[in-house]
Amino acid sequence: MLAAVSDRSQFFLFTGRSLAVRFRRSDGSPLVGKVSRSKTGKTVTEFLGIPYAEPPVGELRFRLPRPKSPWKLPLNVTRYSKSCLQTPDSYFKGFSGAEMWNPNTPLDEDCLYLNVWVPGRLDAKRKLPVMVWIYGGGFWSGTSSLDVYDGKILASEENVILVSMNYRVSVFGFLYVGLQEAPGNAGLLDQLEAVKWVQRNIRTFGGDPDLITGSATSPWGMETQQTLLERALLISEACNCSVTIRDPNPDFAALVRCLKQVPAEKLLENEWVTYEFLDFPWTPVVDHYFLMEDPRSMLQAGNFKRTELLVGSNMDESVYFIVYYVDKIFKKDDFFTKEEFLTSNELFEQAAFMLLPHKLRKNPIAYRWALDKMLGDYYFTCHANEFAKSYYQHGSQVYYYYFTHRSSQQTWPKWMGVLHGYEINFLYGEPLNTVDYSYTESEKQLSRRFMRYWANFGRKGDVCCQDGSLTILPTPYPHLGY
Q1: Is residue 12 part of a domain?
Q2: At 407, which CATH number?
Q3: Does 215 participate in catalysis according to the annotation?
Q4: Structural domain that includes position 200
Q5: 288 is catalytic
Q6: Of residues 29, 141, 156, 215, which has the active-site annotation?
Q7: Is 6 exposed, middle or buried (0-12, 13-18, 19+ CB in 10 A)?
């Protein structure tokens, strides 16, 4: 049985159990989304895989993004797009705790797409707050289609529009030679282009273009984006920037022409070299176009938009990365099995022994958590503190969270604690999904509180709830671990 209902901008097509939504962007380009239900039973209209930029392929490889041209035929946007090219994590192959962060759609250079979740049915008159999510991954990996990033529960429970996007990572997003053919920071400009798309089009989805909150697990929100975002939320944020030093003699234009002819897979195979702990081969650069100066200098000088900020970190930020560093110390396959790793912390103790200064090696067990705190503070918490402090000192309202709860559904060993990034499950309402998970009642309440704080921040720049349920601690920052 088929039935159709239409108005000026929307067209609903009933096909048995499903409901397709035909919809037009602000430029008239037709989209076909779908009405679905969250795992909590609430209605959500979703558009998955909307192109916001031209495919960065061929001559557009490495270059800054170009806005997507309008189209005439209806475009089906009911499935996630392909993920941007990257090297999946295979260190703990077959282990869900690690592989949950790997791309779950095919990899391709043609990957600049975004997703929109609207609570209920479309209504352009609602003017809902808009939350923009940008995944982390050290500019090296990530995708918006991960199960943990499914926006249906968050959008429907908090009555906000949620937007997420793919952006280029690794060499494809951050190759820099100082020429327009490879200007660097292309991945960050992808993010900016997606935010511009949201500003141009979100009104037709029922969103308020003047109430857009950006949320990220990686450094972003640089100077060029200052006028686009009403407020910002940073999760386990670290503000780092590497500046490339160029040799003035090589012919970089010829080099880029050559690299554009190389198959994408070959570039991935040959881009990795040995780096220090938590170093990545591709990072933002000071290009004097998008990023005018080192972010630390920008913070100290107050060269950023005065806006509300919500920033936070987790209790055991670095443990997740330390276990990956073990392979640099021991021969992994000869020294331990995955089963032994998951049931014992002896390996972690030996890694601590190798990483600690000589004067502390007499008792590595006693200092193993000091190592975690030291590295976690150095790479994450201190940067988050500095970021928050700079915003506060320059007159902005700042909220800080410190996440200390270890999930009952966590698949990593218990001794690893509260890992980097694992508050995201609570932010997206995963504990409310009783179909696929068995969280405790207290965890469901924690998730609801976390979602409410985040949504309140997006609505009014203030995390407080009307029922007074927010607890504010007198300590402004988490205690450093060393």
Answers
A1: no
A2: 3.40.50.1820
A3: yes
A4: 23-460
A5: no
A6: 215
A7: exposed
